[in-house]
Amino acid sequence: MKANRSDRPVIRPLPVIDRARQVTDALADYVEDARLQAGDRLPAERELMAALAVGRSTIREAIRHFQALGVIETRKGSGTYLLKPVSRATIHMPLSFDAAHLRDALLQTLEVRRGIECEAGMVAARRRTKKDLVVIEEKLNAMERVHLEKGTSGPEDLAFHLAVYDATHNPLFRQLLEQMRETFERFWEHPFDRQDFARRSFPFHRTLFNAIAAGDAEAARAETLKILDIVEEDIKEMSK
Q: Locate the HTH gntR-type domain: which residues (predicted)?
């Protein structure tokens, strides 16, 4: 008995080539072949577009990927610079989630942040140097100044937490936060259109710094939890 043709497996068409991924690989190869080091400038956007025969949006998508990994930075009016060497072997972890319900998305990401940020605070308290403390306090002072002037300080808050992450001397902490920020920033900037979101957590950034300065890992964990507990309370209250 002959098999019904409809029962046969379907041969599916080949997927469209991921141009952004090709550009990412090409840039990684260029950095490796040119032996670029931290601080070196990458070719300009137009030069990359011409050399790789792709559009501006594709180039920018590849650049954003490396920014999320924390390996390059773009300086306004200057160009794009390498923060650390990169190759095709560089690990990348694209994040995805169902953002249909803002409340659920925020709570899910908060669960991940709680684990990462508590550990980062503890590690920073153990490993921070005098130079680290100077940088963290500078970011904290800027955050406090802007917060008192405007009642909110999103970019300055992020800079403070990045400085804490850098004080761990484990680059993965910063890379993970950058990766999460790239994916979730539009949801975390002003959740529920509330400028006062998590405002009550403001004083605990100073006590977190004090714990890190004192080298008290458990206190750093406790202060981080106070910040994130307030964030969770506001998510639940403001989403009612």
A: 17-85
33, two tokens: 């072949």
Tokens of 131: 């130079």
3-class DSSP state of 42: coil
Cβ(156)–Cβ(146) below 8 Å: yes
pTM recorded for the entire structure: 0.61
Residue 91 has pLDDT above 60, yes or no: no
């956007």: which residue's tokens? 45
Our CA angle for 214, 110, 142, nearest 5°, is: 50
C-alpha to C-alpha distance for 195 and 208, rounded to whole angstroms? 23
d(CA 40, CA 87): 15
Contact 29, 71 (CB under 8 A): no
Work out the angle between the directed axes of helices 130-150 and 203-213 (0-180°, nearest 10): 170
pLDDT band at 62 (very low <50, low <70, confident <90, very high): confident
DSSP-based three-state secondary structure for 134: helix
Separation between Cα atoms, residue 151 and residue 191, nearest integer Å? 15
Whether the CB-CB separation of 78 and 44 falls below 8 Å is answered with no
Q: Which amino acid is at 166?
A: D
- In whole angstroms, what is the distance from residue 159 CA to residue 135 CA? 10
SS3 of 168-223: the string is CCCHHHHHHHHHHHHHHHHHHCCHHHCCCCCHHHCHHHHHHHHHHHCCCHHHHHHH
